[in-house]
């Protein structure tokens, strides 16, 4: 028997210039955990900012995995290099999807993506800043048009396989945070639908049974970002397990995130995940007592089930 920690939201750790790598990793983990518990309700400003932050986060994640793939290729670790190179490809493609969502928000509102003040936006900004400071050679790195593109020495990210596993885990936590933002898109699409109807001079409860074209475009893009983000999280989780020592906390965290990514969208709540896991975990415990055998990893998702559209405004 093992005690289960009660679910709570950790206190925010504001980023500061010159933080150590350990502090950066701790801050990324905290921000990602806070975003998993984010309030799905937001404003137009918040949705626009989150989309921009997610796009840049994926861009930085692509940079980190690319640099690490280059280093492991130099070291002759072809399997690790190939896995990291695939992670770089996937994060680049997700970043492009988030860029499209951010462009849609800017064109819809006709305003620049100014910083939002909602807690989720602040946490997304903290995570992005620290992820950038892991790879860019500027202890005070901030996202912006003049940010440095000079990266830290590749051997700094791969000083040991255990350290490399912690870096990739930070990337995995960041991608999962982006997936959480995408999973909250129902409220965002509702806001788009209301805004579109308001621009047409129609009430939000006009009895329409079909989303406006603009809202459907947002819905499709968010669903695509979530679907591919989950696949990327599963791949990154597998990459961490190749690097992390078996039985380590890093490996356990990566396996848990990959399991969350592999769960159907309707079963993402902690209670549902626990209920879904209970029989398999019990069977695994019995096998372990008898033969010390491990259970097989969960299969990759074969298809994506989109949310049902029941009315003109997406149901909450």
Instruction: Report the portion of residues in β strands.
Output: under 5%
Q: Averaged pLDDT, please? A: 80
Global outline: globular
User: What class, by secondary structure content?
Assistant: mainly alpha
N-end to C-end Cα span:
37 Å
- For the secondary structure, the number of strands is 0
Order of helices and strands: HHHHHHHHHH
Radius of gyration: 20 Å
Largest sheet: none
Unreliable spans are 1-6, 266-316
Helical residues, percent? 55-70%
Question: Can you count the helices?
Answer: 10
Key words describing this protein structure:
single chain, 316 residues, mainly alpha, 65% helix, 0% strand, globular, disordered N terminus, disordered C terminus
Tell me about this structure.
There is one protein chain. The chain is mainly alpha-helical. 65% of the residues lie in helices and 0% in strands. It has helices spanning 21-36, 44-74, 78-109, 119-135, 154-157, 161-183, 185-199, 213-243, 249-262, 270-291. Helix 2 packs antiparallel against helix 3 (78-109) and helix 6 (161-183) runs parallel beside helix 9. The longest helix is centred in the first third of the chain and has 32 residues, at 78-109. It is globular, with a radius of gyration of 20 Å.
Write the layout of secondary structure elements.
Elements: H1 21-36, H2 44-74, H3 78-109, H4 119-135, H5 154-157, H6 161-183, H7 185-199, H8 213-243, H9 249-262, H10 270-291
